[in-house]
Write a structure and sequence with these properties.
alpha+beta; Glutaredoxin
Length: 147
């Protein structure tokens, strides 16, 4: 009985250690996708002014299939994340919660996902939305900085 208990504890320990190894390797990657700022909207605008960077505002509903698809495939792409993280102050809001409700009304969002690009001075540079593949989404961001 003691041998069986010892073997069971050994298997549990090995399992725990084995599950931790991939998690540590995953955390060591330089890029895990677009990094979204979690501050208030006024804090985000102040940061945009301070850093002289435009804001990328993602408006995504929790039930929206295309929003989830963008977040799981396009927002996690290394090239997309690198460009958006270096170029914009990124913010994601839920249009049905908190400040997302007011921002959705303020910017006239009628469908999801919606992408609003805001200049450091607070004016809107451009808006777009819907599912976009990696190349389209990169071009959307690049075009937003040209205006």
């Amino acid at each position: 009985m003691k041998k069986l208990t010892f073997i069971a504890i050994g298997i549990i320990m090995i399992t725990i250690i084995a599950t931790q190894i991939p998690a540590k390797a995953g955390n060591s990657t330089k890029n895990s996708g677009i990094q979204f700022n979690t501050g208030t909207w006024s804090q985000v605008l102040a940061l945009a002014k301070k850093e002289n960077k435009p804001v990328f505002l993602d408006v995504s509903a929790s039930w929206c299939v295309y929003c989830k698809r963008m977040k799981s495939t396009v927002f996690t792409d290394v090239d997309v994340a690198e460009y958006y993280n270096s170029t914009f102050i990124n913010v994601s809001v839920d249009p049905e919660k908190g400040e997302g409700i007011q921002l959705t009304q303020k910017y006239g969002v009628t469908g999801y996902p919606a992408y609003i690009f805001i200049n450091p001075d607070g004016s809107v540079a451009t808006q777009s939305g819907g599912y976009q593949n990696k190349e389209e989404f990169l071009n959307t961001g690049k075009n937003a900085t040209k205006k």
